[in-house]
Structures are given as structure tokens and as C-alpha cells.
Amino acid sequence: MTVSDRVRLLDEIRILEFIAVELNLYLDNNPNDHKAIRDYNSFTKQLMAVKDEYQRRYGPLSNFGTAWSQSPWAWLNDPWPWELD
Amino acid sequence: MWIYEKKLQFPIRIKNPNPKMATLIISQYGGPDGELAASLRYLSQRYIMPISEGKALLTDIGTEELAHFEMVGTMVYQLMKGASDEEIKASGAGPYFTDHGRGVYPTSAAGNPFTAAYIQSKGDPIADLNEDLAAEQKARSTYEWLLRMADDPDVIEPLKFLRQREVVHYQRFGELLMKVQDYVESKKYF
User: Fold this and answer.
1) Whole-number mean pLDDT of chain A?
2) N or C: which end of chain A has fewer CB within 10 A?
3) Is residue B110 part of a domain?
4) Domain count of the fold of chain B
5) Interface size, chain A vs chain B, as Cβ–Cβ contacts under 8 Å
């Protein structure tokens, strides 16, 4: 489990989430585009799976009841997003 | 309710400190066309949107702007972090350092602290969306001026990403404005 493995997984999350954000903004204006909704749901499924893998390995990406925590409280795990790793 | 996600929307790994560049980029943190103003503008304007598309788009773009606010803060932090006092003095970043050290403070590059006077919330969806279109263009310009000042690829890549997001938001707001105009017209009877 090297740092670069973690960053590689994080980059995979960023790519999938970027696609989801783009489709989301498009769908806000085009709620009847069924093909785009299928794409959104498909990328969301992939994103959730990769996030799940990340969080099992490195701790939660989000808190307030949206992800499990390891013990001790893994929300504190370094690095924070603004820190170089 | 908002949930924080402990990651940046786009990776930022600035290896070489550049305190002068930090004091320019800070304008997109707390300046007149910055990300804080953008987020606050959209999240405040959304309440009076007459159609669901508008409520959703302003919520979602307002939320994405908070991710950009974090990206800009990260750039400022990393550009200041490794700089020595001597480098800060020589770079001309002394005025910022005097008030904020190596901290991140919402101000414009010219030193004006953040103010809600940078935004409007007019209670009129057509007026608000026209402001939003202008705001996205002004932010795009600012990123272009910053790109002219930048020479480090670690700084240029995230600035290019942020510039591109302004273009996308402008397009989405333009589509929404047409929908809201149609809606407002359909409600009028003479």
C-alpha cells in the first residue's frame, strides 16, 4: 500500500466523479434525456464501487453518517486534500 | 445539508513555492470574481427560481464552486508553504505576508477583503441569471490573466481546469435562462 496506489485510486474517483458532475449539470436542464440518465446511473455505480474500495483501504472520504469508519476514528487520517503527499 | 468530501475535484501538487503567484491567485479565493462570490451568489439566488431546473442547477453549480474555492485555497497554501521569509520579501508578497503570514485569507489580489457587495440576489430570476452569465465570463477572464502570469505547469494545469469550468457553467446558465424566459412568458396573459 504505497502512497502512489492511494493517489491512483483517488484519480480514478476524480475522473468518474467529473463525468458524473458533467452529466448532472446537463441533466438539470435536460431531465428527459433517457440515454444521459442511463449513463449517469452507470457511471454512478462505477464511482460508488471505486469509492467503496478507497474507503475500505484508506478511511472515509465523507463523514456525518455517509461512510463507515475504522477504529481509531479514521476521519483524521492524513493527508488532507490541500496537503502534498 | 452539505456533506464534505475529503478530496480535491482536480489534483494539485505544486512542488515549487512562489509567494508572488499566491498573492495573485488569492483573487479567485476572495476577490470580486472569485469562487467564494460565485458560490454565495448561486446558493443565495436559488430560493426564488420558478422552475425545478433552476433550483437544481443553482444548487449544483453553487456546490461545485465550493470545490473550486477549496482548489484555489490549496494553490495559495502550497505556493506559500515552502517559501522562506527571504523569498517572500524578495518576491513582493510582503504586504500579504504582513497581514496573513502563510495563511489563506479571502481577499482580492489588490488587498480588498471579501465583501458580499461582489454579488447580487435580486429576487428576479431573469436578472439573477443574467448576472450569473456575466459572472462566469468575468471569472474566465480572471483565469486567463492569471494564466498569463503563470509559468509553472503545476500551477497552469489547475488554472486551465478552473477556466474551463467557467465556460461550461456559462453554457448551462444560458440554457437555463432560455427555459426560465419561456416559463415567465407562459405565465403572462394579456
Assistant:
1) 95
2) N
3) yes
4) 1
5) 69
